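Write out this protein's structure.
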Amino acid sequence: MRQNEQSQHLVKPYLCPPNHSITQSLNVMKIAIGCDHAGFPYKDGLVEMLQNQGHMVLDFGTHSAESVDYPDFAHAVATSVESGQADRGVVLCGSGNGVAIAANKHQGIRCALCWTEEIAALARQHNDANVIALPARFVPEILAQAMVRIFLTTSFEGGRHAGRVAKIACV
């Protein structure tokens, strides 16, 4: 068994249902989320924010600050989005680079490393990104939450960008 096949079987999601006491948004989605130990301090706050917006959350972990390998969680999120189990994904690690690199190994994933609200919006508008990578050691938690909100509510512009996005896939 290859390592990524093995890790996909080890990381199982915890289903976090939406908070139905909150007025649900019109565009409710299934969001996969995963992080390593560096991203863990932000994950529960993001899960709660997403639930309060009415989204269903697939939480692939990690579930503690104990040191873990970020590819295991990035691959689980990417597989979930790629298969259609989730609409979008959120991955976190210290710099955001490791989880972005791992997620982008999946053919159907366009994972964008974001560190400002404008970059999060552009990742959707111009790149049709379906996973956002956040650098937990370099952005405050409130900014991470704002970027995720923007990422989930911003549409792909299509047009001239659609042809460029189509050229990304390696087939």
